[in-house]
Amino acid sequence: MTEKFINTEADRLWPNLMMAISIISGFEAFILIIICTVSIIGNTTLFVLFLRSKTLRTTSNGYLLNLAFADLLVSVLNMPVTVVTIIEQRWIFGETACTFLGFTTMLSFVSSVMSLAMIAINRFYYVVRWKTYRSIFTLRNSVLFGAIVWLISLIASLPPLFGWADYRYIPGKSYCFVFWHSGVTYMYVMLTICFFGPPTVMSLSYCHILRFTREARIRVGQHIISRNLKSDDEMASYGGCPRMTSEEVKITYTLLIVVACFMICWTPFVVTMFIAVYYPQPLPRSADISTLLLGYMNSMLNPMVYGIRSRAFRKAIIRQFRVFITCLRNRAVSVNTSIEQLPKRLESNNQLTRNFPPRGYVISS
Q1: Cβ neighbours of residue 291 under 8 Å, at least 6 residues apart?
Q2: What's the 3-state SS for the chain?
Q3: How far is CA 219 from CA 124, 224, 228, 232, 307, in A?
Q4: Which of 29, 161, 229, 348 gives a 20 to 30 Å CA spacing to 298?
Q5: What pTM, to 2 d.p., does this model score?
Q6: Which of 110, 122, 120, 195 is CA-nearest to residue 153?
Q7: How far apart (Å, rounded) are the C-alpha atoms in residues 240 and 131?
Q8: Using an 8 Å Cβ cutoff, are 302 and 65 in contact?
Q9: Is the Cβ–Cβ distance between 131 and 207 less than 8 Å?
């Protein structure tokens, strides 16, 4: 009797449970769709601005595009598949696709943190070692440094394809990634590569930059009254670096914000990764998926930070928006003109029809 009652109660509650799971899955998918859409639009806009605006074609912005490409990679390939997997509540794309998407996720993650380290190094030489900046960051060297970033990322992402750990479907996060239980040593190597090496480089670089900036401001303060310095160039020269203008200081803080966003978004993901390896019980679904969504959110934050903080990017966005609006207006005017001229063209065609054949012209049979 008790068993029958339990079965009856389970049958009664099962539809409600499935409906609740569907609602939660729909909400998760909706959030990820927003993140994916904003990320694709924002990072694509960065590429368009870089290609169409000469003032933005700098070495530093080139490395920012490296970061934007990594964000686009995960936004175009991985996020849409994760949306489908969340809705279906299972993996439907096959083992080969799972391995490929796990590989691209790892490649994107490693290239992102490597790009941030390269940006920090570039900024360090631009501000602190400005006398040797042009000799080190030539066009050829800059391209080479960018290629090295992707080469390191590629090498770091390959081991699971050759048996050192493997890429599998992770049900709690509804995506494919490294199954860390199959290669704990690989996990520690990746933590060293991604969360100890580059962050250490970034910390040292930005500490030197901030200290140099603070000392430059002190030197400027000592001369500002006696010399009556007014322009940014004058103050930067007395600070010890001709490039240390207020806008350059703001750019440095903007890049620090980008690094902070990356660490805030991905640190919870790394924590759950550790817990999943050493804690015998599976983590709650809410903890797993929320850390993944937070990590994905980092891909859409970078363009927003640039747009809010960088005057050059804002000007370029406004300029391209005005060009777009002008093109739309010209297109509308052209269409309206064509519509207005349509009756005249029809009348002209009718006149030609009535006058054919011409008088005196005999059609031979």
Answers
A1: 173, 268, 269, 271, 272
A2: CHHHHHHHHHHHHHHHHHHHHHHHHHHHHHHHHHHHHHHHHHHHHHHHHHHHCHHHCCHHHHHHHHHHHHHHHHHHHHHHHHHHHHHHCCCCCCHHHHHHHHHHHHHHHHHHHHHHHHHHHHHHHHHCCCCCHHHHCCHHHHHHHHHHHHHHHHHHHCHHHHCCCCEEEECCCCEEEECHHHCHHHHHHHHHHHHHHHHHHHHHHHHHHHHHHHHHHHHHHHHHHHHCCCCHHHHHHHHCCCCCCHHHHHHHHHHHHHHHHHHHHHHHHHHHHHHHHHCCCCCCHHHHHHHHHHHHHHHHHHHHHHHHHCHHHHHHHHHHHHHHHHHHHHHHHHHHHHHHHHHHHHHHHHHHHHCCCCCCCCCCC
A3: 19, 9, 13, 14, 31
A4: 161
A5: 0.78
A6: 110
A7: 11
A8: no
A9: no
Residue with tokens 């322009």, as numbered in its chain: 231
> Encoding tokens for residue 61?
């912005």
